[in-house]
């Protein structure tokens, strides 16, 4: 079994959690690659990530997570673990997890529609340019095509994207990420993100890091994006998570003012998925920053 080959300790008497492909052409090896990529940071203090047992195109088998009650102590462990996972870094904006080489062919378009990934030769040079094109504009166009956003709303989004592309809102990464980038000799440029860090994907448990991460949309990006997603729908003992993160890897000045900007992409994604209930929240963020 793959997890055994990687030296991970699992309860072999317990059935694994099995996740199956839900769309035609979806390749579950992509998610397996994301779990492994994020899990590489655990040895350096990164948060625990669900271990991959086996994966093929159709399904992913991973360790079963036994949840535990939230607590301030576990929340602080989570904050520290997230900070160190982000600091593992990525070599370009929109970098996919290691092991994505097998989907750069026909499956690339489908996978890119779910995960904000870019080929190295196409990768933007700044966070603002990456966030504008691969996150905000991508979802806004989908929402327009499905009739959820009108022409005036799309024009406002485009005005914000122009500001993002001018780097008007670019900011340093948290301190540990910046240190790792500076010491990498040019091989790293941004943070290593979970990519869909809402409360349901950060499961409190009895692991040494307080929780286990599941269901990633992993890519290279700005660490503030993950933290903003965790704040979007709430999380138990969130203040403890953020405080512990900030102690280990201090966040850049003004980070609280940027939270809603980093939340815009998932809000627009929810417009695509669920329609009108999320349009007002998304457009309030757009108007704030145009």
Descriptive overview:
With 290 residues, the protein is mainly α. Helix content is 46%, strand content 9%. The strands form three sheets. It has a three-stranded antiparallel β-sheet with strand order 1-4-3. A three-stranded mixed β-sheet has the order 2-7-6. Helix 3 packs across helix 9 (238-248) and helix 5 (127-145) runs parallel beside helix 10 (255-274). The longest helix is centred in the C-terminal third of the chain and has 20 residues, at 255-274. The radius of gyration is 18 Å and the shape is globular.
Please provide the count of β strands.
8
Task: Give the assembly state of these chains.
Answer: single chain
Helical segment tally? 11
Helix content: 40-55%
- Strand line-up of the largest beta sheet: 1-4-3
Rg to the nearest angstrom? Answer: 18 Å
Shape: globular
SS class: mainly alpha
Gap from first CA to last CA: 51 Å
**Major β-sheet annotation:** 3 strands, antiparallel
């Amino acid at each position: 079994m793959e997890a055994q080959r990687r030296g991970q300790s699992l309860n072999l008497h317990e059935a694994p959690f099995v996740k199956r492909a839900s769309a035609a052409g979806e390749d579950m090896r992509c998610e397996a690659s994301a779990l492994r990529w994020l899990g590489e940071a655990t040895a350096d203090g990164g948060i625990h990530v669900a271990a991959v047992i086996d994966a093929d195109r159709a399904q992913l088998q991973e360790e079963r997570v036994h949840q535990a009650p939230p607590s301030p102590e576990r929340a602080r462990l989570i904050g520290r673990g997230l900070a160190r996972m982000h600091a593992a870094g990525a070599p370009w904006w929109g970098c996919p997890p290691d092991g994505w080489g097998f989907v750069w062919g026909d499956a690339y378009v489908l996978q890119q529609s779910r995960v904000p990934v870019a080929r190295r030769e196409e990768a933007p040079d700044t966070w603002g340019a990456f966030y504008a094109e691969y996150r905000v504009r991508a979802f806004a166009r989908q929402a327009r095509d499905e009739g959820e956003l009108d022409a005036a709303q799309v024009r406002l989004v485009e005005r914000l994207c122009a500001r993002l592309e001018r780097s008007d809102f670019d900011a340093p990464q948290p301190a540990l990420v910046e240190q790792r980038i500076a010491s990498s000799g040019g091989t790293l440029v941004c943070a290593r993100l979970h990519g869909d860090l809402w409360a349901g994907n950060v499961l409190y448990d009895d692991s040494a890091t307080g929780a286990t991460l599941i269901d990633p949309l992993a890519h290279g990006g700005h660490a503030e994006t993950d933290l903003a997603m965790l704040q979007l729908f709430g999380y138990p003992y969130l203040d403890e998570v953020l405080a512990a993160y900030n102690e280990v890897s201090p966040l850049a000045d003004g980070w609280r003012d940027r939270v809603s900007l980093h939340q815009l992409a998932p809000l627009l994604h929810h417009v695509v998925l669920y329609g009108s209930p999320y349009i007002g929240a998304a457009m309030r963020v757009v108007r704030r920053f145009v």
